[in-house]
Amino acid sequence: MITYEVWSKRPNHFRRLTGLTLKEFDEVSDKFQSSYRSFVQHEFLSKERKRAYGGGRHTRIHSLEDKLLFILVYVRIYPLEFMQGALFNMAESRSCEWIHRLLPILDEALDYAHKRPKRGRNFDELIRDFPELVELGILGDGTERPVRRSKDKDKQKSQYSGKKKRHTVKNIIITHPKTNAVLFLGKTQYGKTHDKTCMEDEDIKCRNPIKMLTDLGFLGLQIFNMLIYMPKRKPRGKELTEQEKVINGIISSVRVRVEHAIAGVKRNRSVSDICRNTREEIPDLLMSIACGLHNERVAHRYC
Question: What is the CATH number of domain 123-301?
Fold first, then answer.
């Protein structure tokens, strides 16, 4: 059985198992405890109970550190619920129950730690929190994740991505050009939706001028007060000039950092493997958690 007491004595193995170092784990654990106590207070103690809290069957994951380890292993490795139960010495049904209970708690804990990217925030708040973005600008891109082929024909058609040649969901991601932290995460949409349309659906508002570097997937995008830079497309039947090639190279050399950030987010197998969870809200929740854990890692790298 995997426990925090045993695996914390093996730092290298612990990092490979959870995606976090022990120092990063402790920082998340502090907020996770607050989030879990809030969950217990509202979900259990506020209801009329036939028995005292703590009665009934006994849990197999006793400490809050073990609970956090349980859910981090799930989002990092993304095993079958049967295998997750085997790793923590519990039945598959109880493993499923704990997964769906702890995922929102972990997401909330990352929000308490100010690591989860905000959803639907206007870019003036970004500039207020990160004033250096006025000079540096921001980096934007879309990322897709595979999902199971739906039995519903309309949903199946909406999820099919012509670019990836498979059924996917996608999100818009805005990152910091220096730290690679994910500053903004768009809502989860079906893979057929174009990147430009996804960005327009976010209804982003920006009073202060700010630069954003993107790829050609956002060609034609217009956002008030936002200066959008992207590589120049080669004209049909013609070639780019040497100056245009140099400019394209400069833009690409800066914009590649958003690709590095996406790769960091997808260190969690829960957002890189085919999503097996059938609840509608789970793919979006897993992406939010993966971005928060990525921000936790880069925060320690650049502190």
Answer: 3.30.420
How many CA within 13 A on the CB side of residue 206?
A: 21
Handedness of CA 268, 269, 272, 277 (dihedral sign): negative
Phi, psi at 212, each rounded to 5°:
-135, 130
φ and ψ at 122, to 5 degrees?
A: -80, 160
Question: Per residue in 218-248, pLDDT tens?
Answer: 988 888 888 899 999 999 999 999 999 999 9
pLDDT of 73 above 60: yes
Amino acid identity at 55 = G
What are the domain boundaries of the chain?
4-112, 123-301
Residues 126, 127, 132, 133, CA torsion sign: positive
CA diameter of the chain: 78
Measured between alpha carbons, how far is residue 231 from residues 73, 246, 260, 263 in Å?
39, 10, 18, 21
Asked if residue 65 lies in contact with residue 29, where contact means CB atoms within 8 angstroms, the answer is: yes
